[in-house]
Design goal:
Blueprint: E1 2-5, H1 11-22, H2 30-34, E2 46-50, E3 53-65, E4 68-78, H3 87-97, E5 106-109, H4 112-115, E6 128-129, E7 139-142, E8 153-157
Bound molecules: coenzyme A.
Length: 159
Amino acid sequence: MHNTPLSGISADALNALLDDAFGADRHMRTAYLLRKGMVAINHLSFGILDEGELVASIQCWPVRVDKAELILVGPVAVATHRQNEGLGTQLMQLMLNAVTPQDAPMVMIGDPEYYGRFGFEAEGTSGWTLPGPWEPRRLLLRNSEMVALPTHGMLGPND
Ligand SMILES: CC(C)(COP(=O)(O)OP(=O)(O)OC[C@H]1O[C@@H](n2cnc3c(N)ncnc32)[C@H](O)[C@@H]1OP(=O)(O)O)[C@@H](O)C(=O)NCCC(=O)NCCS
């Protein structure tokens, strides 16, 4: 099993993994609207290969809230037949280890019961608006450098 920058993985293999983890209707998700038209951030996007099979992936995207830059984390995907083996944890650690001091705070839509262990929490996001439906408790922020961020504002692509 080994890690690789996601830029080296074929679009077909990535799409098959994402369809498996999230379902083929995944493009309707609010997270897709949030980063519409953006290119994934290369140094924070990884795949895990096992004997040539892509079994897990993480992607990060440039977004903003009002005028403040953020990094959108996700999708975080683990193949359904490989879940609960620690691959999701491995992906999150790979990504967090690759963060540089220049990188913006991170936002994601996910379960706080899982992502809390990686420093993501809903605190600070309750005044933010998204371009589609969302559950406030699942809009999570990781702002380890305590960057000043708007308390209110629209989240969207950083274009
Ligand atoms: C969520 C996901 C990324 C977790 O990765 P994983 O490799 O299966 O999980 P890990 O092996 O790292 O961690 C397993 C632990 O996390 C817990 N866990 C997994 N998903 C969880 C969730 N959504 N909420 C709470 N706990 C969760 C498991 O119960 C397990 O707990 P334990 O260690 O106490 O037994 C993966 O299951 C997945 O791709 N799911 C489908 C897509 C998805 O929902 N992605 C997240 C939104 S971006």
